[in-house]
Design brief:
Length: 173
């Protein structure tokens, strides 16, 4: 069973579960055998975009291992910051969490915006040591298992995937 989480356009950053107004913090509680969940939320177009995005990722990945959550929050923060700094409204975050039948966990994070006027970089370059910005895509490339950036005048899409393999059981027999 897949859940789709959406938001109210009148309240960017507020997450509603299954379009019925239930807080997203209850998503997944009591659900057994859920193969995946998707969280979609509007982000405020402004300096709070990264903060709202990190909070939404924490909701979407509640209960996952700390390392995965930390990586996902950092990546999402960088993608949301880039969308605000280089793009135009609207900003939208999508977090797709799936548990493949082979075990483990796969998380896809996508941030879209209304577009920008400059072309996408084919590969992120390291900024000068003294630079105060410019490390976002370098961080994404270092932490993500896969990523892409597509820019255009009508929309920009930054996407990445994080995967964690199933851990063998340590229980004794």
């Amino acid at each position: 069973m897949r859940h789709r989480t959406s938001t109210s356009r009148s309240h960017p950053g507020s997450v509603l579960e299954r379009d019925v107004g239930q807080p997203a913090s209850v998503a997944g509680q009591g659900d057994v055998g859920v193969a995946g969940t998707t969280l979609i939320t509007d982000l405020p177009y402004g300096p709070k975009a990264a903060e709202v995005a990190r909070e939404a990722v924490a909701v979407a990945l509640h209960g996952t291992e700390a390392d995965l959550l930390d990586d996902a929050r950092l990546i999402t923060s960088e993608l949301a910051t880039n969308a605000f700094a280089s793009g135009s409204p609207p900003l939208v975050l999508c977090v797709d969490r799936t548990a493949p039948t082979t075990g483990g966990l796969e998380v896809e994070i996508t941030v879209t915006d209304g577009g920008c006027s400059h072309p996408a970089l084919s590969s992120p370059s390291a900024p000068e040591e003294e630079a105060e910005s410019g490390r976002g895509l370098v961080i994404v490339e270092a932490l993500a298992d896969a990523w892409s950036l597509t820019t255009g005048t009508h929309g920009t899409r930054a996407w990445c995937r994080l995967t964690r393999n199933a851990r063998p059981s340590t229980a004794s027999t």
